[in-house]
Amino acid sequence: MSVFDEELLDLKGKVLKMGAMVETAIRDSVRSLVERDKELSKAVIGRDHQINSLDVEIDEDSIRLIALRQPKAGDLRFITTAMKITTDLERMGDLAVNIAERALELSEEPLLKPYIDIPRMSQLAQGMTRDALDAFVKRDKRLAMDVIMRDDEVDDLKHEVLKELLFFMVQDPTTASRAMKISFVAQYLERIADHATNISEMVIYLVAGKIIRHMSLTEEQSKRK
Amino acid sequence: MSVFDEELLDLKGKVLKMGAMVETAIRDSVRSLVERDKELSKAVIGRDHQINSLDVEIDEDSIRLIALRQPKAGDLRFITTAMKITTDLERMGDLAVNIAERALELSEEPLLKPYIDIPRMSQLAQGMTRDALDAFVKRDKRLAMDVIMRDDEVDDLKHEVLKELLFFMVQDPTTASRAMKISFVAQYLERIADHATNISEMVIYLVAGKIIRHMSLTEEQSKRK
């Protein structure tokens, strides 16, 4: 294995590591909401700087790799895609912090209703994150497309959550403040899924040279039927 | 001027052009909401593919530039930053489409109340977009910091809008659906401003090698007093 191949392997490893940290942040932030665990919320917020540091590290490694090794086009695209992906991952980490902040606030007030859709959204978002990065390092177009297809389910769950919360607010206006905060959590999770979808679109562009946006994908799927 | 310098100038021009298109999309989407102008909303939605095309074009130009000219570190960082910035711009374009979609829906229902804070948020977001890109092409750290400082004003306006809408919903639950849609518009505008802030943070990192996140900036400002 050449030095460059080793360095590329290192880079992939760091991207996967950053993805794992983000997945953990999503899982823990939602768990801290459901279990009303203030310490866990604070832990998520406290660990975010580690995600940001890895973003900078990967950026620096990438620049160095490009400048020193002058990789050919295929590897060059892979590295610049890694740089874009870590930007999405860093934003996903920020969204997990936002969830943890709302969890802290909500733990100060009585529980509005048991959480069912939000934990489901969280599981989907975690899976999409993991699979989007897997698709990237393995250059797996099918897996990337699979992630994009899951975005609809997250959107549908978000709409369900918002509808349900609207119903609460209309029935009993004293629930409005809590309902709004919970609606924010659902929107943060939907945005996390959106980022995983964006990563997958970048993977498809990298592998197939095609722009797949969600709309185009649905057309692609219809053609295959 | 060398061929490379010309190509770099071209790249800057395209980034500014993409920024101008996004600025227009923001302005028109909010105007279509305030003026209940369905045709304008549809025009914003229809033009989005042009923003996406420019994103791809800038990406391809950047890859070609790096592969063919093997730029030294400073120029290399500038080009990879351009690639990240266009990702943010493309997302901002998507958010303008989201605003236009809500505008279409709201034009089907009676006006809830005159729009005051939302047009203000829109002006701020447009200005932040323009200045963030100016700061990038001119490598202007001060201007980038100035954009980041404006983010607080947008956040404050968003909170005002949400508070006001909550009040409406509590007073008269029949307003809930319209109030929610307007709250989404405020949140889209806040996210647009966030993207402009992210671009500015990337400019500061490019120019000064420093990570400035909003919190660090407030500390920096305090030290100077």
From TrEMBL, chains A, B:
Q: Subcellular location, in the record's words?
A: Cytoplasm
A GO cellular component entry from the record: cytoplasm
Q: Where is the PhoU domain?
A: 15-102, 118-203
Q: Which Gene3D superfamilies is this protein grouped with?
A: Phosphate transport system protein phou homolog 2, domain 2
InterPro entries in the record: PhoU (IPR028366), PhoU-like_sf (IPR038078), PhoU_dom (IPR026022)
Q: Does the keyword Iron-sulfur apply?
A: no
**Family affiliation:** Belongs to the PhoU family.
Q: What is this protein called?
A: Phosphate-specific transport system accessory protein PhoU
